């Protein structure tokens, strides 16, 4: 017992023993600033009644909205949402490939000028809010699901391009070398070695991105870019809670189903 | 001596049945979804001028606007910090309940995980729209939204960390008759603390990004100004907001990445 305490003391300097205090002060200060900076005023007095009517609405969803044959019902809009996500993801996966090769660090690259610039571009695309993109495309092609497709396809490039380029950087170069040593030309190396090696990973990332796209397609409608989001925001604004309830149920079921399906598919691919 | 044999391929392999069927399904889905969404490539190019015009107007930001948006930008960060903290605090008990190596009751674990899966399906903006209706316009709705959003994400990350711990110290304490709380405090906590903090920071990064658009629906922060500038067609202000948000996100990502590298 004696020796252990002695050893510990001799190994820890004054700084090591007390630097946790600095963290306490920094984190404490941060939280003080946070809590003081936010204004919690303006809370509606009706919050209680509103949440009670929401709960009542969620407990009694408007089942008649599920399908009424007009094309404006839950089933058709959920299908439309899935279509936006699917098309957007596929288009973005295709566009992402050249971006990925641009941003992937090459084996013989010296100052990483090419890959560095590609990475910056991908970061810029990723940070550009999807909602703003959707609004810009609405100005270009009018409100509707087409704008949603465009927003998803452009925004997804940021993430897919990054994931794809990392897959390229980490890929096994063995088969490429084999074809080079057998006298293959650059085109042959690409078609027979590079593409087959990275294809499964590309597929898997695209599926993963599709899961995310389903979620964003279901909210893009809130700004008018098609899908289930549009009736959702109208129902919330008109306080039509039974309708909100059935739409929420539809979104939850859709996302759960897609997540499960995509997970099964991804397990089979890899 | 045996001649090298060509590997024999079955009928379905020779005719690439799997690949062809997969491609067929993909094509059918593509055509169906493009008809459903009314995609019109020609329209995109004929209206491309309008889109370019928008980009041109965004490319000349009014820098003086920066002074106006500093305050809401800071509010956005504050919302993210508070929301993530509340969400993570609630996530800890749920993460413990859904970790298979701590809770042996399969039913309890299943119910908890199902609940967490359900929470995770809800997109952030949808939550924001509902909470703006409940709490009124302001940052409270944003904080609650972010708290629930991060609760779903953090609890999953946390229970995966807990499930990956070394069970030795736990068994040692269990064999001397320690209570469940003691075991968690002395055997589980020291193993997971660093990873918890790391995932907390990761969630904070995502929440800072998410909180910048929450205001679009009235949930406080910079998004309120984003919506205002877009509604007024004041795209040079929109550009300033997007660039400022980008700067904040990059700074937060940088700090958090550095801290996470130090921690792990």
Characterise the protein shown here.
- The complex is a heterodimer of chains A (270) and B (264).
- By secondary structure, chain A is mostly helical.
- Chain A has one domain (75-269): MetI-like fold.
- Helices cover 78% and strands 0% of the residues of chain A.
- Chain A is built from eleven helices and no strands.
- Chain A has helices at 2-11, 14-37, 47-59, 74-103, 113-127, 130-141, 145-169, 174-181, 186-220, 229-237, 241-269.
- In chain A, α7 packs across α9 and α10 runs antiparallel to α11.
- Chain A starts with a helix and ends with a helix.
- The model of chain A has no long low-confidence stretch (mean pLDDT 86).
- Chain B is mostly helical and 264 residues long.
- Chain B has a single domain (65-263), classed as MetI-like (MetI-like fold, Orthogonal Bundle).
- Helices cover 79% and strands 0% of the residues of chain B.
- In chain B, α9 (168-175) runs antiparallel to α10 (180-214), α10 packs parallel to α11 (222-231) and α11 packs antiparallel against α12.
- The longest helix of chain B is centred in the C-terminal third of the chain and has 35 residues, at 180-214.
- Chain B starts with 10 loop residues before the first helix and ends with a helix.
- Classes of the chains: A mainly alpha (270), B mainly alpha (264).
- Chains A and B meet through α2, α3, α4, α5 and α6 of A and α2, α4, α5, α6 and α7 of B.
């Amino acid at each position: 017992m004696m020796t252990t305490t002695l050893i510990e003391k001799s190994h820890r300097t004054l700084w090591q023993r007390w630097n946790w205090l600095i963290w306490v002060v920094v984190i404490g200060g941060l939280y003080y600033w946070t809590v003081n900076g936010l204004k919690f005023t303006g809370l509606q007095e009706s919050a209680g009644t509103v949440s009670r009517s929401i709960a009542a609405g969620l407990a009694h969803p408007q089942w008649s909205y599920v399908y009424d044959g007009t094309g404006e019902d839950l089933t058709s809009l959920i299908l439309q949402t899935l279509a936006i996500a699917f098309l957007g993801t596929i288009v973005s996966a295709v566009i992402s490939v050249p971006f990925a090769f641009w941003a992937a660090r090459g084996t013989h690259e010296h100052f990483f000028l090419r890959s560095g610039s590609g990475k910056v571009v991908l970061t810029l695309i990723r940070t550009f809010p999807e909602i703003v993109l959707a609004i810009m495309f609405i100005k270009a092609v009018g409100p509707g699901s087409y704008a949603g497709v465009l927003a998803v396809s452009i925004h997804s490039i940021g993430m897919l391009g990054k994931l794809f380029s990392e897959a390229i950087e980490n890929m096994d170069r063995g088969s490429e070398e084999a074809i080079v040593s057998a006298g293959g030309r650059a085109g042959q190396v690409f078609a027979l070695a590079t593409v087959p090696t990275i294809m499964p990973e590309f597929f898997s990332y695209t599926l993963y991105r599709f899961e995310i796209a389903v979620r964003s397609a279901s909210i893009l409608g809130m700004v008018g870019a098609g899908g289930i989001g549009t009736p959702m925001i109208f129902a919330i604004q008109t306080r039509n809670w039974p309708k909100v309830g059935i739409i929420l149920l539809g979104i939850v079921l859709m996302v759960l189903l897609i997540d499960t399906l995509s997970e099964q598919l991804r397990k089979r691919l890899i | 001596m045996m001649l090298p044999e060509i590997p024999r391929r079955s009928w379905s392999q020779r005719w690439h049945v799997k690949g062809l069927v997969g491609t067929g399904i993909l094509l059918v889905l593509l055509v169906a979804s493009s008809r459903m969404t009314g995609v019109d490539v020609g329209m995109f190019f004929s209206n491309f001028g309008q889109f370019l015009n928008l980009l041109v107007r965004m490319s000349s930001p009014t820098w003086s606007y920066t002074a106006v948006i500093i305050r809401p930008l800071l509010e956005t960060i504050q919302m993210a910090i508070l929301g993530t903290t509340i969400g993570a605090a609630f996530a800890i008990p749920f993460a413990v309940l859904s970790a298979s190596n701590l809770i042996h009751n399969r039913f309890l674990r299943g119910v908890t995980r199902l609940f967490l899966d359900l929470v995770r399906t809800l997109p952030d903006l949808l939550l924001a729209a509902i909470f703006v209706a409940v709490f009124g316009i302001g940052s409270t709705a944003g904080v609650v939204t972010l708290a629930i959003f991060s609760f779903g994400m953090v609890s999953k990350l946390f229970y995966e960390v807990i499930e990956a711990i070394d069970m030795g110290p736990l068994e040692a304490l269990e064999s001397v008759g320690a209570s469940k709380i003691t075991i968690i405090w002395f055997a589980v906590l020291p193993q997971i603390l660093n990873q918890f903090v790391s995932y907390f920071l990761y969630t904070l990064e995502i929440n800072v990004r998410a909180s910048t658009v929450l205001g679009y629906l009235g949930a406080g922060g910079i998004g309120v100004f984003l919506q205002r500038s877009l509604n007024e067609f004041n795209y040079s202000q929109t550009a300033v907001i997007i660039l400022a948000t980008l700067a904040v996100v990059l700074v937060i990502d940088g700090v958090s990445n550095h801290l996470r590298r130090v921690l792990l």
